[in-house]
Write a structure and sequence with these properties.
With 212 residues, the chain is α/β, with parallel strands linked by helices. It has eight helices and seven strands, in the order βαββαβαβαβαααβα. The radius of gyration is 16 Å and the shape is globular.
Length: 212
């Protein structure tokens, strides 16, 4: 049976393209590239939703609480071999008033719920990916009104997520060294970054699940 990998994230997993205000094609999105790199022995399942948070209910938009949807998501895609979670960017919105530690605690709750789900082929295996920080010009971009003051707290996510991963027994990747943001809203990956992120993830996933 093919190894089943769920990629759980927000608009940067969905593949939002700020240039077109649409979606990158499947062959450009990092999930699609990951599937191509891993090959037919793997099944990469894309579960990205624009605006998704770790645990916060958005008062302006419904259905974006990642904790609420995680259990049915995992159960519907089982049996699972690996889970990649890349969230936190939307938690940085000013209206949530969350610190980086608060956001990491939300990630911890996601990991706990994922581990408890009866959706795994064997033992739960989870990779926490810290999204690259939002760039300062975002706060002067077309999405400034939506995001508010968000840059500094997004910069603190990687350190907090690394601690969360260590305490939870998860794998960890900081996406920042491998990706860059577009020059329109400064918070979504440019096309080239999708490929670079996929290459990093493919190496990790092969080591973790290929020989099981």
């Amino acid at each position: 049976m093919r190894k089943r990998i769920v990629c759980y994230g927000d608009s940067n997993t969905w593949g939002y393209d700020a240039v077109t205000n649409g979606r990158f094609p499947e062959e450009i999105r990092w999930t699609g590239r990951l599937q191509a790199l891993l090959g037919e022995e793997f099944c990469v399942i894309e579960e990205g939703l624009c605006g998704r948070t770790t645990v916060f209910e958005d008062p302006l938009n419904e259905g974006l609480n990642g904790l609420a949807y995680l259990y049915p998501c995992l159960m519907s895609h089982g049996p699972l071999d690996y889970l990649v979670i890349m969230l936190g960017t939307n938690d940085s919105k000013e209206r949530f008033s969350a610190t980086p530690k608060n956001i990491a605690d939300g990630m911890k709750r996601l990991v706990k719920k994922a581990c408890e789900a009866d959706a795994w082929r064997s033992q739960p295996k989870i990779l926490i990916v810290a999204p690259a920080p939002i760039e300062p010009l975002c706060e002067q971009s077309p999405v400034a009104g939506e995001m508010g003051i968000c840059v500094e707290k997004s910069r603190g996510l990687a350190a907090e997520f690394k601690v969360c991963a260590e305490l939870s027994g998860c794998d960890f990747l900081d996406a920042a060294p491998f990706v860059s943001m577009n020059t329109i809203d400064y918070m979504h990956l440019d096309a080239e970054s999708h490929d670079r992120l996929a290459c990093e993830l493919a190496g990790i996933i092969r080591k973790k699940v290929e020989n099981e």
